[in-house]
Structures
1.
Amino acid sequence: MRSLIDILDLSTEEIDQLMDCAEDIIANPELYEDKCRGKKLATLFYEPSTRTRLSFEAAMLELGGKVLGFSDGQSSSAAKGESIADTARVVSAFADIMAIRHPKEGAPLVAAMNATIPVINAGDGGHNHPTQTLTDLLTIRREKGRTDSLTIGLCGDLKFGRTVHSLLQAMSRYDGIRFILISPEELQVPEHVKTDILETGNLSYMETDSLMQVIPDLDVLYMTRVQRERFISEADYVRLKDTYILTPDKLKIARRDLSILHPLPRVNEIPSLIDSDPRACYFKQVLYGKYIRMALILKLLEVD
Ligand code: NCD
């Protein structure tokens, strides 16, 4: 039995196979509509979510399966003091697979150690978010036609942004990747991410606080929200929240084939007038998230 807690739980071959499967689902959805008949997905969401939870649920429903779960930890027995370990054991009796999002780093791993069904990490604190990374990789592959030889700018909250950490991990295994990390000094990628991922892989990276200076070089621009809920001081959040706003004048000097990604939700960092720019991919990215989660559910349930 396999779980997905960290993106590196999957080899690059497995990630490529998941992307191939997602592409096949996009091309032939009718072939998949009964694949999970009789199976149940439980979604245990202890933190707010729109896309991730609903895309897991839509994925399971489109595979012919059923869904159950909760979207607020306060409405679960966590409010009575139940441990994640016990909840994972209990949910194993009701479902075939579970997706869990939790504010504490490591909670999905504890769930996986105690569950008897596959567990998917749907985001743990400021740590990791592997299914968003599968979504991002599929978006990059479909938009650029490749996942190697790319200059990728990651912009915004690189300290608390869990999607950034998982994406750096995953991309560090492809050849010819150059990362440009764009953030204010306070929101730079954590040291452990630098030493464990950026300084061991076969990639190159640089840090800057100027989006304007580097935007002409980028193949992919991955914008992120400043993660308000992870700040200790509201004043710091207010000071930093609007550091980067992607305006039309910045896009004027960007490549015509730039792809703009964002895991969403956005706040002010991408004004809605950018949505009609053909380089904006973030709403397509949402849709790809459903297809890659369908592929992942099939894999972890070992459905043919
Ligand atoms: C992200 C998350 O939850 O980490 N959202 C998502 O899952 N699409 C990004 C964010 O909340 O900023």
2.
Amino acid sequence: MRNVSYITTPIFYPNAKPHLGHAYTATLADIFARHRRLSGDEVYLLTGVDENTEKVVRAAIAVGQDTKSYLDGVVSAFTDLFSAQKLNISYDQFIRTSNEKVHWPGAQAMWQKLVDAGDIYPASYDGFYCVGHEAFVTEKDLIDGKCPDHNEAPEHLKETNYFFRLSKYTDEIKKRIESNELEIIPAARKNEILALLEQGLQDVSFSRPTGKVSVGIPVPGDSTQKMYVWCDALTNYISALGYGRDDWLFRKFWYDGADTLHIIGKDILRFHAGIWPGMLLSAGLPLPKKILVHGFITSGGKKMSKTLGNVIDPDVLIAEYGGEAVRYFLARHISPFEDGDITLEMFKNAYNADLANGLGNLVSRIMKMAEEHHHPASPIRHPTERLFSRAGPSSTEEGILESYNIQAYAEYISQEIARLDRRIQETEPFKLVKKDKTAAQKIIAELVNKLSHIASLLQPILPTTAVKIHDAITQNRMPEKPLFPRK
Ligand code: MSP
């Protein structure tokens, strides 16, 4: 039977157009999804946007638009960035949490389950709320009375909310994480969350008074309250599969033992490894199997920010270098487990070294020799379908990918590229052909074969380039244009 995999990105806040951090999460998720599909798994990849937030309302007001048209605009910026012409994110669904038909029934069904379990209770809240974080903050989170991340004083709130009895689930969540039933990758993040669980989880506010928020899903049975952020947002992972409505996808990709993988950034770990498992336990639903937690992308060693002027727009990189080059950089030069840095200069250097002089040049050299001197007896089969099980990776290569270290995998491929370059230098088949044609042809055949293997390995990272290389090999011709022109 085929393995079934469910992979998700977080739902992005659509209060501004996507930045490189969003591109990173989505690209990582796509690389794993493609890898698993190539290994023969049945995969469902989910991405989307987290729309029911005050951040969006404020952003729309700031530019004089109504919330809906503002959202539609930002959503098209996301889907455009993820399209085949750009980052090529092979998602099966792009969920919008403002969609009352797709998402709301699931969020409300989840709420009802929590109520049925006796885990929702009203209480008054008196404290601070940061709209930037969409979270309740305490005085110790503030510097000079302001949220240091958003440079803004939080709102003081005194109101009645429904709370979720998260504290009740601390021990069970801890047990599941310790035993790796819910595996947190990498281990450092697992330890971080275990340390937090050691202190005990606190109950969390799950609703806000209807009059105080402009958007949000109504709380079932109480029109005076709307759901607040996390119950709504986290439930997207199952509402997208039809939880609360027509739920065959939900059975298949969540309930019946599918390999479920959430990919998130480090800032939202506590929500995904605390609140989310707590909600699922309360609702009597299976927990996800794995959460992969990546770091932050910085620029010039600093957090990207408009004020510092160091924000890198993925569209600018794509316009200059193409979507595949951006995918390659993110895979090869950013660690999936720690913070990683990027500047425009680093990107250009890496592009020229790895892609123009490295891979692109290698393909041209080998295919030029092949076109002139190699005459394959039978046409080489185009090996893109189910590659990993045929000409696919060895156990070492597969092993690296299975440990989620996409950077190590990309590094391994670049070593293979360098090895093949050296092999050409050492054997010089273009010279040898004049003295011993048969020997030279044998070497060229070997080079083509190895190049085909490299293209196979590259598929999850560079899907379009991999097909171009395989096409060149099948047609025994040099690509018409260089794959990666030098910049
Ligand atoms: N809407 C919430 C997630 C809800 S999931 C049920 C959210 N949205 S976000 O737009 O702020 O962030 C989305 C993802 O992008 C998160 O995984 C976050 O870690 C990631 N990134 C945001 N900035 C980033 C960088 N500079 N670098 C890498 N990823 C970062 O949180």
